[in-house]
């Protein structure tokens, strides 16, 4: 089934320019841009905006899938609260395999600004921060220029569309570390504190940035909001092929013919993404498995590639939607080596706060290195399983370490014979076929 | 001593946050932009300017991977080591650069032109293997392109 959709079916990317340059303010407005913000602030109460988003079934696109409208509702404080509130857009995007938020910020900066302004209106925030990872210099420049343009034109700032609503958007460039993407660590980062996660409770929605009620949302989540306000909750639900609302900006990377990003209905199958969009595997390679939702999700085997990319379906095959960013493992790449590489990332990026993570992940990395290098024993494989069993949510202070265990847990299940072969042959059986540069 | 220009740029960020100490990351980045790295002396000056302890500022500066606490070359090459680039051969790319520049990861060429650093996923997995030079993305990088990429950074 090739793509017959129209821009209206692709609220996030339908109007992107073919030349890759960012959509300017003029073009954005010509396509109806900032109309949703106008509608929200001039004709809807903030609670109504939250209700529509709740009904739309929009779930967070940052990896955890929390219902967006419900989160906004938690930040409601009632009329007696006179203090500040904050909205934060999470553009840290350092999960291995993820680059969807970059595509949105580089291509359609005003969509994000409009989504942020509407979200700020819904939760009652007059200040919204946009947190951008250090390496996204281009996104950073494009977003800063767009903020200045939007302010100049009166879409941000004081008394927007003549309403009583004021909002400022403040970009913040980070300085590199994956943990800054974790919502509460991100708040510490913005406050200039060491960016380690915070204890919950209290939840951010009651005591977040500078202890004020704060909503943190992913960039893609916020980009979904304007079209929901314009077209309504049912329209958004109907975009999806499954019961979960909306489209998803899926990406595919690995040794496929056309790695890239495509906005498609939630519930599009992995196989369709790989074959129709990513152009299949490069000559001579076959797909063994995929990580469907980025580095912190479990492997889905080739036999299950018809699984729809949505939360409920992926759970049934032992994985998660995560960030919806597919990484392909091919038959000439060693699964043990791939896991070693992934756990190296998580061990290095551990913030060091809790022992199961900073000790455990380093040990996991060492064990995988030994096994990959042909120095491992059967007992080492057992030790890996022991870590998988112990490093669970509730045992660690945040979800970095349990997330790191998801590919490993599924890898030990699906590729056990590869682990054993490394131990028996004292080498990597696939090394000769191996990876090639270029 | 912070320069007047640095001081001015850092002061401009005070209005963005509820507290002056929140300008720490901006301050470190501003200093690094003008000097290439953040020396012990610059760190102490910034701490004083923000009214925070040198220790707490150091615990931030050393936490962030993009704050350089050692001098770097005129250009900083960062090679992505994460999973998609690894699948696409980043280890071989690094080995090629090691050879071509006669430096290991974390080292600076004898002429002070390049520092070679490893980096985690650059969010450019569709362009694997990817590398970044002075904040500019290059990828997919093939062996035949390396000389012409390097020549863009004299
Ligand atoms: C270690 C770690 C890193 C994370 N990195 C990001 C990130 O880069 N971007 C993001 O949106 N969410 C990230 N998250 C999820 C956030 O904690 C949070 O759930 C999300 O920003 C909420 O937005 P959403 O509900 O719109 O998805 C991360 C979580 C963890 C545990
Ligand atoms: S799980 Fe890891 S990253 Fe999270 S708080 Fe503990 S040490 Fe830090
Ligand atoms: S893994 Fe290298 S850019 Fe993502």
How would you portray this structure in words?
The complex is a heterodimer of chains A (438) and B (154). Chain A is 42% helix and 11% strand. Chain A has 438 residues and is α/β, with parallel strands linked by helices. Chain A has 3 domains: 233 residues, Rossmann fold; 84 residues, Roll (Ubiquitin-like (UB roll)); 103 residues, de novo design (two linked rop proteins), CATH 1.20.1440.230. In chain A, the strands form 2 sheets. A 5-stranded mixed beta sheet of chain A has the order 6-5-9-7-8, sandwiched between helices. In chain A, strands 3-2-1-4 form a 4-stranded parallel beta sheet, with helices on both faces. Chain A is globular and about 75 Å long. The longest helix of chain B has 12 residues. Chain B has 154 residues and is an alpha+beta fold. Chain B has 2 domains: 60 residues, Orthogonal Bundle (Arc Repressor Mutant, subunit A), CATH 1.10.10; 76 residues, Glutaredoxin (3-Layer(aba) Sandwich), CATH 3.40.30. The two termini of chain B are 30 Å apart. The mean pLDDT of chain B is 97. Chain B has 7 helices and 4 strands. In chain B, a hairpin with a 2-residue loop joins strand 3 and strand 4. Chain B has a 4-stranded mixed beta sheet, covered by helices on one side. The chains are: A alpha/beta (438), B alpha+beta (154). Chains A and B meet through strand 3, strand 9 and helix 13 of A and helix 2, helix 4, helix 5 and helix 6 of B. The complex binds flavin mononucleotide (FMN), iron/sulfur cluster and FE2/S2 (inorganic) cluster. The site of flavin mononucleotide (FMN) has 25 residues of chain A, from strand 4 and helix 16.
